[in-house]
Design brief:
The complex is a heterodimer of chains A (150) and B (132).
Chain A (H helix, E strand, L loop, with lengths): L2 H17 L2 H6 L2 E6 L2 E7 L15 H19 L5 E10 L9 E11 L3 E9 L8 E10 L7
Antiparallel strand pairs in A: 1-2, 2-4, 3-6, 4-5, 5-6
Chain B lengths: L6 H5 L2 E5 L2 E6 L6 E3 L4 E2 L1 H19 L7 E9 L8 E10 L3 E9 L8 E8 L9
Antiparallel strand pairs in B: 1-2, 2-6, 3-4, 5-8, 6-7, 7-8
The chains are: A alpha+beta (150), B alpha+beta (132).
Chain lengths: 150, 132
Amino acid sequence: MSRDEKSAWLKRMNEGFCERVPHNKAIGLKIVDFYDDGCLCRLDHRSELDGSPGAGSFHFGVIASLLDAASGAAAFIKLKGKNRVATLDLRVDYPVASPIGETVWARATCYQLNEHVAFTRAVAYTDDEGAPISTAMGTFRVFRKQPDVR
Amino acid sequence: MSGDRDYTDFLGITSIRDGAQVWGHLPFDPALVGNATVKALHGGTLAALLGATAVLQAAESLDLATEPRVVSLTTEFLRPAAYTDTYAEASFTRLGGRVANARVVAWQAERSEPVAVANVILTLERRSHEAL
């Protein structure tokens, strides 16, 4: 994929996943990079995303929103954008209490794709990807296009 | 941007009290939508409701020094959550001195048709040190 093709894809992904998904747009989620089986997303802190009023932290719920969106995007990317996906199950762990930062990054990977289910893992981090503030494991339903039934 | 709200306020989550039970309530808002094609709420907003309901119930039931902390949140999404209000109720499968395990159910029009369920692990800081 050429650099121009990649930036065109990234623009389309952001339109589809961020502009046209109201809650992703509401929190300000952006996809900043992608590859064959995953992507990197960013979320800048705003007071509405606080863990408690005025804390300056990221709430556990918005980290769940971020990791759900990033993991779904990873599955969609691995499917080359051909099939719709929906979350079946998402486990999110929070090793860090009240994580603080200007930006939280989420890197999500779709590590296995079956006929009807995609399997994902993801990390969220503020400074060091090796010391995540949160990790997630997900399974996603894959909606394969049905053959015509007569 | 004055810092008087947090993410649960941003989502519009409130609590409904019925005796010792606390329900989480997520009124429908267009900003909660995750998929406009199938008209479904965002999974993250449901996960947030389920986790927040476990926190609300623990804070209501126990004498805690600080707000319970969510350390793990596992959500199963059972059916698309429609453009309407969502409710959630938590029960504790185990309530320890330091750790609580909650099972939380979220539903919309029909309680018998949950849209999502979650297992939530909370850590607790109790005010009183009663033996458990």
